[in-house]
Specification:
The complex is a heterodimer of chains A (about 300) and B (about 280). Chain A has 11 helices and 12 strands. By secondary structure, chain A is of the alpha/beta class. Chain A folds into 2 domains: about 160 residues, 3-Layer(aba) Sandwich (Rossmann fold); about 130 residues, Rossmann fold (3-Layer(aba) Sandwich). In chain A, the strands form 2 sheets. Chain A has a 7-stranded mixed beta sheet with strand order 2-1-3-4-6-5-10, with helices on both faces. Chain A has a 5-stranded mixed beta sheet with strand order 7-9-8-11-12, with helices on both faces. Chain A starts with a helix and ends with a helix. By secondary structure, chain B is α/β, with parallel strands linked by helices. Chain B has one domain: Thiamin diphosphate (ThDP)-binding fold, Pyr/PP domains (Rossmann fold). In chain B, about 40% of the residues lie in helices and about 10% in strands. In chain B, the strands form 2 sheets. Chain B has a 5-stranded parallel beta sheet, sandwiched between helices. Chain B has a two-stranded antiparallel sheet with strand order 4-5. Chain B is globular, with a radius of gyration of 18 Å. Classes of the chains: A alpha/beta (about 300), B alpha/beta (about 280). At the A-B interface, helix 3 and helix 4 of A face helix 4 and helix 5 of B.
């Protein structure tokens, strides 16, 4: 995803001289292409995320479109108040880009687990929150986020993800992509959890359960209409996210479901339970520890 | 003004800045009195710096507050908002009667400086330690665009406890931002006591020098010294400049000077009248 991101960014920057890339001294072997093409629009501020964000806000106040780049929680939580006050308060054209979402750095320990960022970032006023599912979405999300004025958060996986979309997709901020149609159950995923959502849908299909799959790349503003439609047209909704169960995609979808009147689908969330912070391991291992999403889907229909 | 025009002030600009400072003090006093608000001490300690910046130190035009070529000003010590609102109103950025709405329900002028709908305010602040990075970003934008304007940032001494300040202090010289100017309102008093008691900053000027800044220490109430510093920018070519302004918290009102209490307290009607009379005498 990070490769798709930097390639898209270089293309956009070639057309738009206002685009600048700032890093907190991370992105080795990723950002060099941009730095070589646009040396005047690239700044490595050093290991100083508060300054990274403040400088970006200052540049943005002078007409620049700034991307702040780092990994896991560093460009979000380490400088959260700068994002809140200097970026959101000013509707500044700053896009926070974090690579290594969820458990991409699972073996590196809790400091590197990006599992609260969706919740925290979506609570900020005017902040657009996007977690693309695969390199194809990452490419389109990068372009869309830069084209849209104001604060943004782009939550990327790492590298080497397979392309999940078999054909070109239409990417609109705030509009879910219906990856698969289905009538019994709806699986709503964000970020690279789409891969697992599709695996679950395949397993359900073998049991003759038809699952709709939505790639909810934009967590804020949420595609509420897609949620309501799923709620009316299928019997259950399961959200899937590589993120804490508190405040992320599941909570955002629940907000919509809870305010629907009349007959509606059952609802459950799959994600990272609280208090997992002493576990370490590969992304695959960490996700397995979180539980079996297929079982969660089946339970939803049995209840 | 009773002060004679000094020999270095042939245009009378210091007479004008001294009069502006007096009016800023009066304006801020009336505002905090009416609003029952805190932070008058800090407004009074920085009034002379603001008056010099807005009467001759910065290239700003109240008729074109968003002009792309203007100098930028970031008040990092956002709690000094009343002083900035007063200097902006006195300079013609917005009507003086707006000052009556300071901290009022539904008013434009928040207790910590806000840019929204307020001409002349380039950036909002209120949480300490944010402004210098923002001003550095502005200065970097000017450099990258080949523009001639400067970015000014006013810090408090207490906020130099924040680590984020020193991130920016490290950043600016590395990027040769000699269009960045920091003024430190060094009034030696912070929330819980003197700077020396709470968290000693000394040797303060040496710290900035060690970080490769051009440094000048002045009496922050002496307009001739303030003007001398502003005229000499940048102090070192290729480096950002810091003016460490030694000031007195509550300056200009005898019973407020050097009193921690006036970080919090709002003057009542009697105290406001006495403060005004002291400032009128000087006119």
């Amino acid at each position: 995803m990070r490769t798709a991101f930097i390639k898209a960014l270089c293309k956009v920057a070639a057309e738009n001289p206002r685009v600048m890339l700032l890093t907190g001294d991370l992105g080795f072997s990723v950002l060099e292409e941009f730095a070589a093409l646009f040396p005047d629009r690239y700044v490595n501020v050093g290991v100083a995320e508060q300054n990274l964000t403040g400088v970006a806000a200052g540049l943005a106040s002078c007409g620049k479109i700034c991307l702040t780049y780092s990994i896991a929680n560093f460009p979000t939580l380490r400088c959260l108040e700068q994002i809140r006050n200097d970026v959101c308060y000013h509707k500044a054209n700053v896009k926070v880009v974090s690579v290594g979402a969820g458990f991409a750095y699972g073996s590196q320990g809790y400091t590197h687990h990006g599992i609260e960022d969706l919740s925290i970032m979506r609570s900020l006023p005017g902040m657009t929150v996007i977690a693309p599912a695969d390199p194809a979405e990452a490419d389109l999300a990068t372009r869309a986020m830069i084209a849209q004025p104001g604060p943004g958060f782009l939550r990327l996986g790492k590298a080497g993800e397979t392309v999940l979309h078999k054909s070109p997709v239409e990417f609109v901020i705030g509009k879910a992509i219906k990856v698969r149609e289905g009538r019994d159950l709806t699986l709503i995923s964000t970020g690279s959890m789409l891969r697992i959502a599709l695996e679950v849908a395949d397993s359900l299909a073998k049991r003759e359960i038809s699952a709709r799959v939505l790639s909810m790349h934009t967590v804020k503003p949420l595609d509420e209409e897609a949620v309501r439609a799923a709620c009316r047209e299928t019997r259950g909704i399961l959200t899937l996210e590589e993120h804490s169960l508190t405040g992320g995609l599941g909570s955002a979808v629940a907000d919509v479901v809870a305010t629907m009147n009349g007959a509606r689908a059952r609802f459950a969330k799959w994600g990272v339970p609280d208090m997992l912070h002493h576990r370490v391991g590969s992304q695959k291992y960490m996700l397995e520890v979180c539980g079996d999403p297929l079982a969660a889907a089946l339970r939803l229909l049995e209840e | 003004m009773s002060t004679a025009t000094s020999c270095s002030d042939k245009t009378g600009r210091l007479d004008r800045s001294r009069e502006l400072a007096r009016r800023v003090r009066l304006g801020a006093l009336s505002m905090v009195h009416k609003a029952g608000a805190s932070h008058i001490g800090t407004c009074l300690s920085m009034s002379d710096l603001l008056a010099c910046l807005y009467s001759f130190g910065m290239k700003v035009d109240p008729a074109k507050p968003a002009d792309a070529g203007r100098d930028r000003f970031v008040l990092s010590k956002g709690h000094g908002a009343a002083g900035v609102y007063a200097v902006l109103a006195e300079s013609g950025f917005f009507p003086r009667d707006w000052l009556e709405t300071y901290c009022a329900d539904g008013g434009k002028l928040a207790g910590h400086i806000t840019h929204h709908g307020v001409p002349g305010v380039d950036f909002s602040s209120g949480s300490l330690g944010h402004g210098l990075s923002v001003a550095a970003g502005m200065a970097l934008a000017a450099k990258r665009d080949g523009a001639a304007w400067k970015a000014f940032c006013l810090l408090s001494d207490g906020e130099c406890d924040e680590g984020s300040i020193w991130e920016a202090v490290l950043f600016a010289p590395h990027h040769q931002l000699d269009n960045l100017v920091v003024l430190v309102d060094f009034n030696k008093i912070q929330s819980f006591g003197t700077v020396k008691e709470v968290l000693d900053l000394d040797p303060f000027a040496d710290k900035w020098r060690a970080f490769n800044w051009g440094v000048r220490e002045i009496d922050g109430h002496d307009h001739e010294q303030i003007a001398g510093a502003l005229d000499a920018l940048p102090f070192v070519k290729g480096r950002p400049s810091v003016i460490i302004a030694h000031t007195v918290k509550g300056k200009g009102v005898s019973f407020m000077e050097n009193k921690l209490l006036w970080h919090y307290r709002s003057p009542d009607a009697g105290q406001l009248a006495q403060a005004k009379s002291e400032l009128e005498v000087r006119a």
